[in-house]
Amino acid sequence: MSRYTTTATGPQAAAGWQIAHLSPPSGLFGANGMRFGPDGQLYVVQAFGSQVSALDPATGASRTVSPVGGPIVAPDDIAFDSHGTMYVTEVMSSRVCARTPDGNTRVIADNVPAANGITCYQDRLFMDECRPGGRLFELYPDGRTPRLLADNLGLPNALSVGPDEHLYFPQIAAGEIWRVPLAGGTPQRFLDGLAIPTSVKFDQKGLLTTTQAGNGEILKIDIQSRAKTMIAKVRPGIDNMAIDPNNRLFISHFVDGGVAEVLSNGQERVLVAAGFLGPWGLVAGSDGTVYASDGGSLVTITADGKRNRPGMLLDEGFPGFIRGLAAGPGGNLLVTTSAGSVAAYHPGTRTTQTFATGLNELLGIGYAPDGSCIVAEAGTGSVLKVNTKGEVSTVASGLGRPSGVVVAGNGACCVSDERSGRVVQIDGGVTTVLDGLQKPQGLALLGDQLLILDVGSRELIGFSFATKQRQTLASNLPVGAAPGITPKPLPGIPDLIPGPLSPFAGVAVGSDGTVYIAGDGEGSVLALRKG
Question: How many CB atoms lie within 10 A of CB 217?
Fold first, then answer.
């Protein structure tokens, strides 16, 4: 199962090279809200991919309901009414839309920042905003002004109506579950002491079920006695859940896009395997471990393809939604974030040192011999130097859209410019190294060759500094959007995941000469080796 559809052949390597997957394609672009539709299929929305998919709960087979580039942007939660109309919150565009069974889509509410949880109860629609100071509304599909039920909430999320005619919702920031009468009234705390509760649903027996993203625990709660029972403990990063008419429980993971049924013994039956949101920036360690920035987490991949996540957005001290990645001193990884930060993150100690904040749409990063970071500031067309004291200086400006950065041992710095289709060298001025490219992003060095990942042509290109010759080393790469797809921009979520959340496909070289490619289109990492 792969989220990337193309009629072309798979990745192709040039003569003398071999290409294979180090980490396989991902099924989804992350997995957020879920709900069973009137057809019995499990509908999964994917905020970071702007896609709605329907899964066969028996086999995990997937079909696309609303594609990337379609009218629904960054969907975060989903609900259905009795007529089969699908309601979706668009967390990054501050609106809620309705999609009728014939595929007609319309906006029913806007100006609702961080619109997130949504539920339908007896054809009444309720929605909340997952942000500091968030609000809880009853919405009206005919476009009437929403009815405010509660405000000044601490990151409310996926909500549900209980058998007592109260609307229950988690407040992520407080680790609590609250409730408010459907008729209106003062919200009341129902339960506290939870580890980042992300969703609440009621099962067919009237028990409140809640997922905890922080520790991976899933609880059942009797709302009369408030007695709690832990029914399963899975990996952290749970986003949401769905319960079918037979009381079967299914969960989603926003961190890795996994979807699974939780069995009665607490084990998982996997429908969609864990994968990547991206990946974006890559670094190859001297021991053969590959590090990948994946937005909400850092992923390690060993030589045999095993993955681990030594840090994620939920962890205290994690730097943020990470994109660019470079090797730094002392086992640190240098990162750029969607919030415009430059930081060093140590995956062993899980500690972060932030050097600069508030910069404008950062992508690639490189480590200079003097200990500073060189970063591509795409939002201003500049290349910046950031030192460990937090001092920021401009080393180049006037570029179209700088993306990838690589710094040689002698301090020579090359930067890719997506907009002008060229790679430049920064040496007190800006000198073109190679042009005629479509959309160059990731850069790396392999001996005297500069490696350029051209997302526009889906090629990895090698350019010799000595001979000035270029060669296509790999083609038909699963990078960028699938052919024929034009994704809509993702502006991010203010105060949580600031944007824009721009795509960026990185490339890295291992100590043995293996070239690693971020297949951000299909959610994979590829390894290119001399054959």
Answer: 20
